Amino acid sequence: LLFLFFLFLCINVSAQKSDDYIRKQLDKGISCVNRNDYESSLDYFNKALNEAVKKYGDNSGAVIACKSQLANSYFNLSRYEEALDIFLDVAKFQKTKYGPNSQEYAIQLDHIASCYSSLENYAEAVDYCKEALVIYKPYFSDENLEYLFSLNSLSTYYSLAGLHSEALATARDVVKIVGDSFGTDGEDYITALEELLSCYLNSEQYEEALFVLLVDEVARYSEQETKALNEQLKRNPDANVPKRIHKKGKEAIQAAFTKKSR
């Protein structure tokens, strides 16, 4: 009995050392990530992963935690195929553990979509992003914005795929949701307008792009300035667009032409 008790204590001490080692390697890897040193983080995350696999087996929460960190570092190093393989593995685990309608699973679908987009496989990026959106939508609230972020990504993927009508429709949805939910005087609304502007430029709809630039500029005004500009436009719809908007519009359109001529 004394021998068995001693053996039990040794096993517990060994297990604790193993957990401490995994935690320590993860912490070192995360510290590297915080310094944008993704290359160095790979060594620490791989060490943590190997130890987690030895202790817990391939299909465990500890292993998935290590893999998630590893995949993010690969992605930030533009090693998209390696990141994709790991994110697919993590997604499978999250789907089994939390269910096919869980946000944990949807987050991995978003990561997979980003990888496919970076690999210029936009059709797959669109499909995975749309699947994530279906899951996110019921959870959408002021405190849970994953649906909105994913919808904005979908607009980008459509645009990159050359599906400009779909990109514009999605970008307009984002602008409406942000405006209705959070108002039209914040940075979120301006960011949504800039994505819509990008979609118009990519589809060569330059008059619409200039209009969005005008709305964007209005969104940056104070409330008093906005009211004054609105009154001016009501009195004279053909009023001259402010010079800074003209300048900004010309720069944006010139950039779009330069991009297309390359």
Q: Can you walk through the features of this model?
A:
With 262 residues, the protein is an all-alpha fold. 82% of the residues lie in helices and 0% in strands. The protein has twelve helices and no strands.
Give the radius of gyration: 25 Å
What is the β-strand count? 0
Count of DSSP helices? 12
Q: On the 0-100 scale, what is the average pLDDT?
A: 79
Give helix and strand order, one letter per element, not per position: HHHHHHHHHHHH
**What is the approximate shape?**
elongated
Residue share in helix: over 70%
Q: How is the biggest beta sheet arranged? A: none
The share of residues in extended strands comes to: under 5%
The secondary structure category is: mainly alpha
Uncertain spans: 1-14
Q: N- to C-terminal separation?
A: 79 Å
